[in-house]
Amino acid sequence: MLVSQFSRPLTCRLIEVLGKKKEPETMEVSCHCGNVKLIMARYPIEIAECNCSICRRYAAYWAYFSPSEVDIQVGDKGTKPYIWGDKEVEFHHCNSCGCITHYISTAKCSVDRTAVNMRMATSEQLQGLALRHIKGVLY
Fold first, then answer.
1. How far does CA 103 lie from the centroid of its chain?
2. Rg of the chain taking only CA atoms, in angstroms
3. Which one, out of 30, 38, 49, 89, has a CA that is 20 to 30 A from the CA of 125?
């Protein structure tokens, strides 16, 4: 929790409006070079850290959304997808800076999902979000 110069607790993504707190409507993150930008229609309720073989190597914190909630904007450098194992998800990284930006579920997956790598968010954006540990190694 942040504390202001007046020693009053602040919550990062909350804005005080007429005595009521309101979350911003959208959240935006980008890769290091700015080639890939993801704009989410809402802030995530939580972020997840999975320990499966690939997520552990990527050191990603995932926030899950329906595809309609995420606007993926890719610049001229593009992204490169990586699909492995059960071929249910397609991991994307920026062709310029190499950041793992997001994954999308494929037709083989039973869930229509876009996951955003929240390691691209600022520390202020992450503050106050719950972190859930997923034992993906067991799947």
1. 10
2. 16
3. 89
